[in-house]
Design brief:
The chain has 10 helices and 8 strands. It is α/β, with parallel strands linked by helices. The chain starts with 20 loop residues before the first strand and ends in a 9-residue tail after the last helix. Strands 2-1-3-6-7-8 form a 6-stranded parallel β-sheet, with helices on both faces.
Length: 233
Amino acid sequence: MTEQSTLRRAPVLRETGRPTVRVLIVDGQQMMATSLALALQREAGISVPATVNSLAAARALVSHDPPDVVLLDQRLPDGSAVEAIVELRRLAPRSRVVLLVASSDDAVLVAATQAGAAGFVATTSPVEELVAAVRAAAAGEVLISPVLLPRLLARLQAPTVHGDGQQLTAREREVLELIAEGLSNAAIAARLVLSVNTVRNHVQNLLTKLGAHSKLEALSVAVRDGLLPPRRH
């Protein structure tokens, strides 16, 4: 088996004429990579132009043909997933990285969050959850498997300073708490009876006030600064 195995498929266009979401799969096990590609390519609006089996191969491909989303397995033969996230984001800042998580080591979730991961999906999750995570990442949102979100929040740095989030408004705090529940912008809009555009504005405002570049980073800051209510067990 060669270091880099590739699946090619002609680009699919949406009815609007815009290209579909292009996904690069990076998985050390070719059988798993092929299975993931087949599952994703059955979905309308998603294509998998390539799969690669190593970080080195991913670097080479991303450098000249950045995908919309990189689906990255936690276990790589030539580097750690956290290192891979940092490198791939440096090479392709607009590509969003979703991490496939198999390990029970919650520290990996925290490190990947800090490295800039756009979402997490457990390897035991159903295909529907994987597809939702890819679509969310491509839309600039975050989706975390329900089985992983409590683990991530529990392992984020314990609050040392009870800040006020630079005076988040009551509505921004509501939005922040719903992000912590794993809701998308559309789901938050439905819960609060707001338009999606209004929710996007609230999200952008709270990211700015928290000095965060993503929802995951915002959650990390919020937990650190004691801005979220205690989780119920």
